[in-house]
Amino acid sequence: MENDIHIKDYLDIVKRRKVSFIAPTVVVLVASIVVALTLPSIYMATAKISIEAPAVSEDLVRISPEGYVEERLASIAGRVLSHKNLMDIVERFTLYKDLEDKFTTEELVGMAGENIEIERVTTQVQSERLTKSISLTTSFKISFLGNEPDKLADVANHLASLFLSENDRVREEKAIATIQFLEMQLDNLRSEIEQNEEKLAAFKERHLSELPELMALNMKTMDKLERDMDTQQRQIDDLVNRKIYLEGQLALLEPMMYKVTTDGRRILSPKEELELLRSQYLT
Question: What is this structure's pTM?
Answer without folding.
Answer: 0.52
